[in-house]
Design a protein that fits this description.
By secondary structure, the protein is α+β, with helices and mostly antiparallel strands. The chain has 32 helices and 27 strands.
Length: 879
C-alpha cells in the first residue's frame, strides 16, 4: 500500500496525473524521454487522500460548498489549520523520509530540495493554478514534512477554491500530490514560452532570464532579460537587457530576514545568456513542445554550465488578457493617468488612486483606471450617444460632437452645478490669479508630515493629497490645483476659433505657438538643471571620463573618490534637494525615486555631455518665432476697425494666450508637487515594510506593494502573518507580470468611435500611421526610440523622440528633440503640454509606435493632423 504513496520520477508519466498531479506527471514524462530534469520523487495524491480521510474533512468540505462569499475565507482558513496541526501517520512519515534519504544519498554534493504542489487538476491544457498553490525552496530533512503539509493546505487557499468553482471542478475530487526535487543552485534561471504569450504568435519563442533562482522571475520580483527568437532557424529577433537589481540567491545567508539580495553593480546590466545558451534553451523548449503536442511554458535553471528543465506545462493563456471578463457597464480608459506609464498599477497603488478618484465615476479594472461612461452621461444636461461620449472622454481635447440641450436632465444638472460651485467654485476663483510660486509652501508641509510618526501612509495621503479646509492655503492642496488647471483647454479652443475667424490665412499652429514658452515650468527647469550638471561635468576631465566609462548605477561611488568631482557632487546634491522626489512612473508608489537612487540623473547627465549644441538654443528659436508671430498678428489685425487705435482684438488674443499659459504652467507645476506628496507616502510605506521584514511578517522588499491597505492594517494589528499573505503576494505578482505584457482595451462594454480618420491624400507619400495631434507643426527627422530616458542611448539634437509614454522625468529629452511620437497620451498629456511649451510637433496615442518605427528611420511628423509617415532617406532634411 505504502509504495503507491511515494513515486519516483522514473516510475510516472503524463498518464499519471490522477496520482502525481500535473506537475509531477510532466516531470516524470520529461525525465523518461531523456530531458535534463533534476531527480526527485512525488508524494502521491493517494497519500493526500488518505491523510484527508484520516482527519475527517468531509464535514468541512460540505460546509465549504454551502459557504457564502463572505464566509469562504473563514472556512478555507479553518480547513488549512486542521491540516497543518494534524500529525502525518507514522508509516507515511517513514516512507517520505526514506525517499528523501535515498535522493540525498544518490547525489555527490550536499543538497536541499524544492517542495512543490502538484494538484490533480493543475497545469492542464484548459486550467492553470499557477501562483495559487504553494512552492517552497531550501527545504532540508527537518522541514520536509511541514512543507508537505503546507502544500496540502494550499489546496484550500480562497483563490484556488474560487478558481476551481469557476472551472466547475469539485472540491472533494481534487487532491494534492507533492513534488520533492533536488533544488538546483542556479546561477541563471528563467522561463521560455514556445509561443508568444502576449501576441499569441506561434512563430516566436520568448525567453526571460535573470541571475540566481527562478523564484525571482516567477514571482515577479525582478525584471528579467527578454529574448524573442524566430522559430524558423532560431534567429534572435529581439533582445532587451534589463537592469537586474535583485536576485534570489542559491544559498541564503544565515539569519537573513529577506530572500532578495542586491545584484553586484557590474552584473546588473550584463547579459545573462550567451548565443549558445539561447540556442540550447530554445532547442530544449521546442523538443518539449513537439513531445507534448502543444505550446509549452518551460522553467529552467543553469548551474555550472548545465541547463536543467524544472517544469513544462501547457500555455493556458495566449494573446491579450481578457480584461473585460465579467465586467458589466460601459467604461473607457482614463488617459490622464494611463498616459504617464503603460503598466497596470500595483494593488497598493490602486488603493491610493481610488482615494483620489472616487466611484462611481471611476473604477480600477485589472490595475488600470477607467471612466464610467454612463455615470458621466447622467451628469451632462445634453443629449449625446454613449458612443460619442465614450469617444469624447477618451480623446478629451478634441472637437466635441454636436449636442442638444436636454430639458429633462437640465434641472438636476443645474442643481449639481450649483452644489459644485459652492464646493469648489471659490477654490477655482482663488487659483485664477496667483503668483507662479504659490505652491512652493507645499514642500515644507511634506517635510513636516514626513517627520511626524503619527502620520501613517493613509493619513499622509489624506493630509497631502486630500481636500482640506476650503480656505486652507491653495498651495497646500496641490492635487485639487491639478484637477482645476485644465481650464486652459477652453481658453485655447476659443483662441483657435478667433484666430481662424479673424486671420484665416495664419499657419495652423498659430495658437499653440502663441501659448508656447517654458518660463516658470518646473519640469523644464529640471531639464535645465541637468544641462547645468552636464556642463559642470564637461569642465573637469576626470569627471567627464568617469561618467563616460562607467554605468550610471556604478559611477557615483567612483565620483565620490575623485577629488575634482567635489563641485559636481555639490551641484548634484543641490539638484536632488529640489528634484529628488522625481523618477520614472511617478504615479506608481513602487517606483524608486532619484533621491533613493540618482543613477537615472547621472545617466541623463552623461547623455547631455554628448550633446554639442546648447539645448537652450531650441527654446530661443521658438521664442523668436513666437515674437515674429505676435508681430504678424498685430499687423494683420490692423485692417479691422479701431484696431490701430485701441487694439481690442489683439487684447482679447493676448488675454486668452496668457490665460492658457498660466493654467498650463499651473497644471505642470502642481504635478511636480503632488508627486512630492506621493513620494512622502512611499517613504511611509517603506518604513512600514522595513518593520514587517524585521518582524518576519514579510520576506522580500517590494512585497508590500502587492498588498491592499486593509491587509497592511491587519498585519500591523497581528491578525495576519507572513504565511497568510505570501501566497496572495505571489499570485498578484504573477498577475501583474502577465498584465504588464498586454495593452489594456481602450473601452469596455462599448465600441469606441475613431476620433480621427484618414483621407486618401494623407497616405499618398508613403506608409502612414494615425495618432492624435497634441502639438501643431510638421517636422522630418531621424527616429530614435527611447524606452528609459536614464539608460537608453542618447537622443541626438534634432532627432524625433519615439517613446512608450512620457512623464516629467522625460522632459529633458524635449530640450533636444525635433518632434515627439508617443504610444499613449492626449492633448492634455505631459507629452502634448511640454511639446507645446517648446513649440515642437507631437503626435500621441499611436499604439506600438516603439515597435512599428525603428531607430534610424526617417519620419515625418504632422502635428496638425496627427499623422506620422515613414519617408525615404532622400525626402528632405531635418527642418
Amino acid at each position: 500500500m505504502m509504495t503507491s504513496m511515494i513515486l519516483r520520477f522514473n516510475e510516472i508519466g503524463r498518464k499519471d496525473v490522477a496520482i502525481a498531479g500535473g506537475k509531477g506527471a510532466n516531470l516524470g514524462e520529461l525525465i523518461g524521454k531523456g530531458f535534463p530534469v533534476p531527480p526527485g520523487f512525488v508524494v502521491s495524491a493517494h497519500a493526500c487522500e488518505s491523510f484527508f480521510r484520516d482527519i475527517e474533512l468531509r464535514k468541512e468540505f460540505d460546509a465549504l460548498n454551502k459557504a457564502s462569499r463572505d464566509d469562504l475565507k473563514n472556512q478555507c482558513k479553518k480547513i488549512q489549520e486542521i491540516i497543518e496541526h494534524a500529525q502525518i501517520p507514522p508509516d507515511l512519515t517513514e516512507a517520505v523520509l526514506k525517499a528523501y534519504d535515498e535522493l540525498v544519498k544518490s547525489r555527490t554534493n550536499n543538497i536541499v530540495c524544492a517542495v512543490r504542489s502538484s494538484a490533480t487538476a493543475e497545469d492542464l491544457g484548459d486550467a492553470s493554478f499557477a501562483g495559487q498553490h504553494a512552492t517552497y525552496y531550501y527545504v532540508d530533512r527537518d522541514r520536509l514534512l511541514l512543507m508537505v503539509k503546507h502544500c496540502w493546505a494550499s489546496l484550500w487557499n480562497p483563490e484556488a477554491v474560487s478558481y476551481r468553482t469557476t472551472q466547475g471542478i469539485g472540491h472533494e475530487s481534487v487532491f494534492m500530490a507533492v513534488v520533492v526535487q533536488e533544488m538546483i543552485r542556479s546561477e541563471i534561471s528563467g522561463v521560455t514560452f514556445t509561443a508568444n504569450p502576449v501576441s499569441g504568435s506561434r512563430d516566436e519563442i520568448v525567453t526571460e532570464a535573470s541571475w540566481g533562482m527562478g523564484a525571482a522571475i516567477v514571482d515577479g520580483r525582478v525584471t528579467p532579460d527578454h529574448y524573442i527568437v524566430e522559430r524558423d532557424g532560431f534567429k534572435l529577433r529581439e533582445k532587451r537587457i534589463a537592469d537586474k537589481r535583485f536576485m534570489v540567491p542559491s544559498r541564503l545567508e544565515e539569519g537573513s530576514a529577506t530572500r532578495l539580495q542586491e545584484v553586484p553593480h557590474g552584473m546588473r546590466q550584463k547579459e545573462t545568456l550567451s548565443p549558445d545558451l539561447i540556442q540550447k534553451i530554445t532547442q530544449l523548449a521546442v523538443e518539449a513542445e513537439e513531445h507534448f503536442g502543444n505550446p509549452q511554458d518551460i522553467e529552467w535553471a543553469i548551474a555550472d554550465g548545465q541547463v536543467y528543465m524544472l517544469q513544462s506545462r501547457p500555455i493556458t493563456m495566449m494573446g491579450r488578457e481578457d480584461i473585460e471578463r465579467d465586467i458589466k457597464g460601459q467604461y473607457v480608459l482614463f488617459k490622464p493617468l494611463v498616459e504617464n506609464f503603460t503598466d497596470p498599477v500595483t494593488p497598493l497603488t490602486g488603493d491610493f488612486h481610488q482615494l483620489c478618484f472616487a466611484p462611481p465615476l471611476f473604477r480600477t479594472i485589472k490595475g488600470w483606471l477607467y471612466v464610467n461612461v454612463r455615470a458621466f452621461k447622467a451628469l451632462l444636461p445634453v443629449k449625446i450617444s454613449d458612443e460619442d461620449l465614450a469617444a469624447l472622454l477618451y480623446n478629451f481635447g478634441t472637437k466635441p460632437p454636436d449636442m442638444k440641450l436636454s430639458l429633462l436632465k437640465l434641472p438636476h444638472c443645474l442643481c449639481l452645478a450649483f452644489f459644485t460651485y459652492l464646493t469648489f467654485g471659490v477654490f477655482y476663483s482663488r487659483t485664477s490669479r496667483l503668483p507662479g510660486n504659490f505652491m512652493d509652501i507645499f514642500r515644507k508641509l511634506a517635510e513636516k508630515v514626513d517627520e511626524d510618526p503619527a502620520f501613517g501612509p493613509l493619513e499622509t495621503s489624506e493630509r497631502l493629497l486630500g481636500v482640506s479646509k476650503i480656505f486652507a492655503p491653495a498651495g497646500n492642496q496641490v492635487l485639487l490645483v491639478n484637477l482645476s488647471a485644465p481650464r486652459y483647454f477652453f481658453s485655447m479652443r476659443v483662441l483657435e476659433k478667433l484666430l481662424h475667424r479673424w486671420l484665416p490665412d495664419l499657419r495652423d499652429d498659430a495658437a499653440s505657438l502663441l501659448c508656447s514658452g517654458s518660463e516658470g515650468v518646473l519640469s523644464a527647469e529640471m531639464g535645465r538643471g541637468i544641462w547645468t550638471l552636464a556642463k559642470e561635468a564637461k569642465r573637469h576631465k576626470p569627471v567627464r571620463e568617469l561618467l563616460e566609462k562607467h554605468k550610471p548605477e556604478k559611477v557615483l561611488s567612483e565620483l565620490k573618490a575623485e577629488p575634482e568631482a567635489k563641485k559636481f557632487l555639490e551641484q548634484l546634491d543641490s539638484f536632488l534637494s529640489i528634484n529628488g522626489h522625481r523618477g520614472l512612473k511617478e504615479l506608481e508608489l513602487r517606483s524608486p525615486r532619484w533621491e533613493e537612487n540618482p543613477a537615472p540623473v547621472l545617466g541623463m547627465v552623461r547623455n547631455y555631455m554628448l550633446v554639442e549644441t546648447d539645448p537652450g538654443e531650441h527654446e530661443r528659436v521658438v521664442d523668436q518665432t513666437r515674437r515674429e508671430m505676435e508681430k504678424k498678428i498685430r499687423k494683420n489685425l490692423e485692417k479691422y476697425p479701431l484696431e490701430i487705435l485701441l487694439r481690442p482684438r489683439w487684447r482679447i488674443i493676448s488675454y486668452l494666450a496668457n490665460r492658457t499659459k498660466y493654467f498650463s504652467r499651473m497644471r505642470e507645476n502642481s504635478r511636480f508637487y503632488h508627486i512630492m506628496g506621493f513620494y512622502t507616502v512611499r517613504k511611509k510605506i517603506l518604513r512600514v515594510e522595513d518593520e514587517f521584514i524585521r518582524q518576519g511578517k514579510l520576506r522580500c522588499k517590494g512585497d508590500i506593494f502587492f498588498l491592499h491597505i486593509k491587509e497592511i492594517d491587519r498585519l500591523q494589528a497581528g491578525e495576519l502573518a507572513w504565511r497568510d499573505v505570501d501566497d496572495r503576494i505571489r499570485e498578484r505578482r504573477m498577475e501583474h507580470i502577465r498584465l504588464s505584457k498586454t495593452t489594456p482595451p481602450k473601452s469596455i462594454g462599448i465600441k469606441l468611435k475613431e476620433a480621427f480618420r484618414f483621407d486618401a491624400k494623407d497616405v499618398e507619400e508613403g506608409v502612414a500611421f494615425r495618432g492624435q495631434p497634441a502639438s501643431s507643426g510638421s517636422y522630418s527627422g531621424i527616429a530614435r526610440i527611447i524606452l528609459d530616458p536614464s539608460i537608453d542611448i542618447e537622443l541626438r539634437p534634432g532627432e524625433v523622440l519615439i517613446a512608450p509614454y512620457t512623464d516629467p522625468a522625460w522632459t529633458p529629452l524635449f530640450l533636444t528633440a525635433g518632434a515627439a511620437i508617443v504610444e499613449v497620451g492626449s492633448y492634455l498629456s505631459h507629452a502634448g503640454t511640454v511639446a507645446r511649451e517648446f513649440g515642437m510637433p507631437c503626435v500621441v496615442d499611436l499604439p506600438d509606435c516603439t515597435k512599428r518605427i525603428h531607430t534610424g528611420l526617417k519620419v515625418h511628423v504632422d502635428g496638425d493632423q496627427g499623422i506620422v509617415r515613414l519617408i525615404s532617406e532622400d525626402k528632405g532634411e531635418n527642418k
